Amino acid sequence: MFLKSKKTATDISSRKSASRALLRGLAGVLFLLIAGSANVAACDMSTFVQSEFAERCQLLLDLCEKTDLVRSLHHPDIKIHSGALSREWVRFFLAHGNHASIPPTLAFIGSDSWSDAMQETGQAISRLINTGIDKADFNRLNYRIQLLKEPQRIEKLHQVFKSRREFIEKSSKTDHDVLAGSDSDRRKTWIDQALLITGTAIDEQLVNDAELQHKLRTDVDAHIETFKRIMEQETAGTDREVIEILFNSLQQEINLDMSFWEALFFYSTR
User: Fold this and answer.
1) Measured between alpha carbons, how far is 178 from 181 in angstroms, rounded to an integer?
2) What is the mean pLDDT of each run of 10 residues along the chain (270 residues)?
3) Number of Cβ atoms within 10 Å of the Cβ of 270
4) What residues contact 265, with CB distance under 8 A and at least 6 apart?
5) Is the pTM of this model over 0.70?
6) DSSP 192
């Protein structure tokens, strides 16, 4: 009897395992079919409506806010809200996650920049759902999604960033016609074109975001102070090569800071 029972149990277990394997296989096929159909639909942007896309972005913002709030309050409904956010982000990503399905109003964004932005947004949402994120990262996430609702703000800064890069490329040449005048004049022109003009344009887009605006102004003020000290050393007679080394270091720091803003506004990958 014992052996017969054992054989029966084994047969039952085998049948259950086979059934589970079949279900998993069917589930996998269904997922691929659903994802495939979603991607096919995502490629057709002929029926795109910006106002509807903006509403979708706003829904993401609302779900991020709720998830962050209930997590900070240790609310028992955290799984409900995080689940809703997770599902909505998956739907959003399936619809617009690659550059082939980018909204027409944002088509001026490069494919690498869009891919980087979608990946970063997805990672931030994942951390928000699983562990929570700090205030700075949450603010950046919200701002990124908010910008998608207002493509004209992104495009305006793209023009500024493009002009900045063109200036830097020209100024890197040893052609004095590009930056006429003394060494001091050329350095002042570089700070004006590569830091102040760009910084002012970014600041105008951050009027409703006090934290990001504070970060920008703090960084710009620090660079200006460093530049003033370099100029003071030059006036005091410090060796020209030392001044060049100090200024080159400042240029690198400014360019590094600007890469943060370029990435935030979908202009470049890090």
Assistant:
1) 10
2) 38 47 40 42 68 95 96 92 96 92 94 94 96 94 95 96 95 59 88 97 94 96 98 95 96 97 86
3) 8
4) 147, 154, 157, 158, 161, 202, 205
5) yes
6) I
